[in-house]
Amino acid sequence: MDRIIIKGLRVYAYHGVNDSEKEKGQPFELDVTMAVDTRVAGQSDDLRETVNYSKVSKCVIATVLSEKNDLLERVAARVAEAVLKGFPVAEVTVLLKKPRAPIAADFEYVAVEITRRPEDFA
Fold first, then answer.
1. Residues linked to residue 10 through DSSP beta bridges, in sequence order
2. pLDDT recorded at residue 52
3. pLDDT tens for residues 83-96?
4. DSSP classification of residue 26
5. Pairing of strands 91-98, 2-13
6. Which end of the chain is more exposed for a tag (fewer CB within 10 A), N or C?
7. Which member of 7, 22, 97, 98 is catalytic?
8. CB count in 10 Å sphere of residue 91
9. Are the CB atoms for 109 and 29 separated by under 8 Å?
10. Which residues are CB-contacts of 122 (< 8 A; sequence separation ≥ 6)?
């Protein structure tokens, strides 16, 4: 299966267990990888024959901003569900990074990565 990848999508949002995270917000970064059969689009050069990554990006951003969640796991699951319900993909992997998590340590980011298929939300 082919892959369409959106890497490093940045969203300023309001997720976290701490009240201050939901009030002040912080940056999040997503990588979204979609399993898509791109053979027809590769032959036809027709956007209608593939998954429009611009529309997927807008969907992901809207989903991340639509509510405040405590857990990265919940945000990632909501993103995966929105992509699978909105676009003809066989599978989606969401890597959700939180580079400014409130941890007293030197780190690049904390993250959750999930993979879901349409049947997971049937």
1. 29
2. 98
3. 999 999 999 999 99
4. E
5. unpaired
6. C
7. 98
8. 18
9. yes
10. none
